[in-house]
Amino acid sequence: MAARNDGVASAERADRAERADRVEKSEAEWREQLSDEQYQVAREAGTERAFSGKYWDCKDGGNYHCVCCDAPLFQSGAKYDSGTGWPSFFEPLDSDAVVTKSDVSMGVERVEVRCARCDAHLGHVFPDGPAPTGQRYCMNSASLNLETEGENDS
Ligand SMILES: [Zn+2]
Predict the structure, then answer these.
(1) Residue in 66, 68, 69, 138 annotated catalytic
(2) I want to staple 88 with a disulfide (CB 3.0 to 4.6 A). Which of 82, 96, 103, 153 is the partner?
(3) Which residues contact 73 (CB under 8 A, 6 or more apart)?
(4) Secondary structure (3-state) at 146
(5) Which is nearest to 111 in space by CA: 119, 123, 120?
């Protein structure tokens, strides 16, 4: 019986550990690292109020990293003014940087976007974005940390 249980556990682990650099922390560790708002959005799938975040109107050049694990997720070149009050991008930095999953929590079906490395909630993606992808990655500022160009050369 023990062997059978181990088999199930291993299968679950293999499922979750698709990335070698995956970051997993306890709730307490995330709470320690993040502000209350960052925790609520990134770890509890909250949404910041429109026009309240620090990046919706930001036009600085650089890469937007995950606020939890620092994985690079979006670049400023793919950011555009969607008029929604949330930072919006037409594509992620790399197709492997984020994962998507169906979210029916608000009574409508939406596609949730999470950090592929640490599972942080980032926002949602909608099929009403601009060319060239037609996608609108509607993100929360609270889940992102902009590293402006030149700041990260060490
Ligand atoms: Zn992350």
Answers:
(1) 138
(2) 82
(3) 63, 64, 65, 66, 92, 93, 97, 98, 115, 122, 144
(4) strand
(5) 123
pLDDT digits (tens, 9 = 90+) for 78-113: 999 999 999 999 999 999 999 999 999 888 999 999
C-beta separation of 88 from 79 below 8 A? yes
Q: How far apart are the first and last CA of the chain?
A: 53
Find out whether the peptide bond into 132 is cis, omega within 30 degrees of 0: yes
Task: Report pLDDT digits (tens) over 27-67.
Answer: 999 999 999 999 999 999 999 999 999 999 999 999 999 99
Q: Which residues surround ligand 1, an ion (CB under 5 A)?
A: 66, 68-69, 71, 115, 117-118, 120
Residues counted in the chain: 154
Q: How many CA atoms lie within 13 A of 123 on its CB side?
A: 27
**CA of 3 relative to ligand 1 center, distance in Å:** 33
Q: How far is the CA of 68 from the centre of ligand 1 (A)?
A: 5
